[in-house]
Predict the structure.
Amino acid sequence: MMFEGTCVLADWTGTCTPKPEFCTEQYDPVCGCDGNTYSNECKAWAAGASVFSAGECKEID
């Protein structure tokens, strides 16, 4: 199973951000870098996944 896009930091640069303590239940789906769809950006960050794109993840063959 593969997902569209690439989510790699080859040079290990980036910014570490603290996980949120709580998130709203607002449904505004995002596709996480791990290929999972989260109900909103906060929930993705809380799970430790950066946001790859807005909307649900699209599975490709």
Summary: Strands lie at 2-3, 30-32, 37-38, 51-54, 59-60.
